[in-house]
């Protein structure tokens, strides 16, 4: 977390406790669901969902049989909600931690982005891309959704454009997919990018 950020754990915890969670879709969103469905059978791949909130993605993956799924969030309330919904999810995989302090020991195969990037101070975006790269193995994947729109009110959420985002990820990732999502939730339709980025291999130039 940025030391000067007002968007600290207490801020997010308060948003959950007061029900100010307009971002919460109440279930896994269609673009992520479609992506997960083509991952194949559950295996040993290590998956991290940072800024996961109530973590509907982790619930889906867990129920499908994926066992190496971790959830990270600074706020306690959504993790507690998740634990009540999915009591057999391993408690040790629920990390109440700052994303920027997570360690790649061992590294992850897949990182899932769903309305976490837009919740961070925009000044943290280069650091977000760098930390995603640090947490992934070479060839590992960062996938998910990024808003490709500006918001009229002061964030969070903070908006942005695909051109801006490209500059953050290009030093560390190859771009497999970086296009307007075709199956967004109706209020987000045409306003978000579906991204699938592969961490560069050491031999890549
Ligand atoms: C807009 S919410 C999105 C939650 C969830 N991904 C969803 O779509 O419902 C942003 C989440 O990021 C968490 N968060 C904010 N800063 C964080 C940080 N530095 N490390 C980990 N989690 C953080 C907040 O507590 C909140 O749950």
Please describe the topology of this protein.
Elements: H1 9-17, H2 30-37, E1 47-50, H3 56-64, E2 69-72, H4 76-85, E3 94-95, E4 108-113, H5 125-135, E5 136-147, H6 162-169, E6 173-180, E7 192-199
Parallel strand pairs: 1-2, 1-4, 2-3, 4-5
Antiparallel strand pairs: 5-7, 6-7
Helix pairs in contact: 5-6
This protein binds S-adenosylmethionine.
Any idea of the CATH class?
Alpha Beta
So, the CATH homologous superfamily?
A: Vaccinia Virus protein VP39
Q: How are the strands of the largest sheet arranged?
A: 3-2-1-4-5-7-6
Q: Note the run of SSEs as H and E.
A: HHEHEHEEHEHEE
C-alpha termini separation? 31 Å
Question: Structural class of the helices, strands and pairings?
Answer: alpha/beta
Regarding quaternary structure, how should these chains be classified? single chain
How many DSSP-defined strands?
7
Total domains: 1
CATH architecture: 3-Layer(aba) Sandwich
Alpha-carbon Rg, integer: 16 Å
Average pLDDT figure: 96
Low-confidence stretches: none
User: How many distinct helices?
Assistant: 6
C-alpha geometry: globular
Helix content: 25-40%
* Proportion of strand residues: 15-25%
CATH topology: Rossmann fold
Which sheet architecture does the biggest sheet show?
7 strands, mixed
